[in-house]
Specification:
Number of strands: 4
Largest sheet: 4 strands, mixed
């Protein structure tokens, strides 16, 4: 299984997830979508697996800083456009496990899904 963690390196939740993976000797690749970007196909794949509502972090500083018009009437197409333009609005981390995608970090979830 190939594991890719998507996020930004200075995020506290990313740091916890990385520490957990490293502490369990689980190899992964880190993709910094602030520096490396995020392609539409990857985002659409995640949306197909977990839904845009799970990915869109309305509590993020970036989302809160949007114009009110951008925050209203969000549907899948609008969410895709926002997330591609501002990937820091994606809940972190996104752990891509080939066929599965985990969003957020909970040690119990990682133990069940990553080490299985």
């Amino acid at each position: 299984m190939t594991i890719t963690m998507y996020g930004i390196p200075n995020c506290d939740t990313i740091k916890k997830a990385r520490t957990w993976l490293e502490g369990h000797d689980i190899a992964y690749t880190f993709h910094d979508y602030r520096a490396e970007g995020l392609d539409k196909a990857t985002l659409e794949g995640w949306i197909g697996k977990v839904g845009w509502q799970v990915l869109l972090n309305k509590a993020s500083t970036t989302f809160r800083g949007l114009a009110d018009a951008d925050k209203q009437d969000i549907d899948e197409e609008k969410a895709k456009a926002l997330l591609l333009a501002h990937p820091t609005m994606i809940k972190r981390p996104v752990l891509d496990l080939d066929e599965r995608v985990l969003v957020g970090f909970k040690p119990d979830m990682y133990a069940a899904e990553v080490t299985a």
